[in-house]
């Protein structure tokens, strides 16, 4: 699979801090198995560093899927679209990925080359 479906690095920096580096968001059918394995490794970490530096984006559905696994499961929307008829909340995907506990801190790293779906994930987590 090309570029490991965007999962560049996943590890425990010490027993309590997880690190996940994503270089792009591939289509869910390609990315989901890799993200599942990464999140299973990180599920016991007390905190997570999500590295999105130089991630130009990619498939918005995959970013949405990952977002749903990182936030409180009671959250159903993180953004709304404003039209002339008013605001319409945009529903989040229900995730099939393992959930990272929402009561644990997540730090997101971005840079000037972070774009598109990666920006969506970063600002939604903020």
Q: What is the 3D form?
A: globular
Element string (H = helix, E = strand):
EEHEHEEEH
What's the mean pLDDT score? 89
N-end to C-end Cα span = 31 Å
Q: Tell me the CATH superfamily.
A: 2-enoyl-CoA Hydratase, Chain A, domain 1
Strand coverage percent? 25-35%
State the oligomer.
Answer: single chain
Supply the number of helical segments: 3
Question: How many domains would you count in the coordinates?
Answer: 1
Q: How helix-rich are the residues, as a percent range?
A: 25-40%
Q: Biggest sheet, in brief?
A: 4 strands, mixed
Strand order of the largest sheet: 1-2-3-6
Secondary structure tally: strands: 6
In the predicted model, the low-confidence regions spanning at least 5 consecutive residues are: none
CATH topology: 2-enoyl-CoA Hydratase, Chain A, domain 1
CATH architecture designation = Alpha-Beta Complex
CATH class category name: Alpha Beta
Provide the descriptors you would attach to this structure in a database record:
126 residues; alpha/beta; two-stranded antiparallel ribbon
Notes on the protein architecture:
This protein is α/β, with parallel strands linked by helices and 126 residues long. It has a single domain, classed as Alpha-Beta Complex (2-enoyl-CoA Hydratase, Chain A, domain 1). Helices cover 28% and strands 29% of the residues. The chain is built from 3 helices and 6 strands, in the order ββαβαβββα. It has helices spanning 28-42, 60-70, 117-125; strands spanning 7-14, 17-22, 47-51, 77-83, 86-91, 106-109. The strands form 2 sheets. It has a 4-stranded mixed β-sheet with strand order 1-2-3-6, with helices on one face. The longest helix has 15 residues, at 28-42. The chain is globular, with a radius of gyration of 14 Å.
């Amino acid at each position: 699979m090309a570029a490991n479906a965007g999962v560049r690095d996943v590890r425990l920096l010490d027993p309590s801090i997880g690190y996940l580096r994503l270089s792009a968001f591939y289509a869910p059918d390609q990315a989901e198995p890799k993200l599942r394995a990464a999140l299973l490794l990180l599920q016991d970490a007390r905190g997570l560093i999500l590295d999105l530096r130089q991630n130009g984006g990619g498939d918005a559905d995959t970013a949405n899927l990952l977002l749903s696994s990182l936030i409180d499961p009671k959250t159903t929307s993180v953004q709304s679209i404003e039209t002339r008829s008013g605001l319409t909340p945009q529903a989040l995907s229900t995730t099939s990925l393992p959930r990272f506990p929402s009561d644990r801190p997540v730090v997101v790293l971005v840079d000037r080359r972070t774009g598109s779906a990666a920006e969506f994930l970063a600002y939604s987590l903020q």
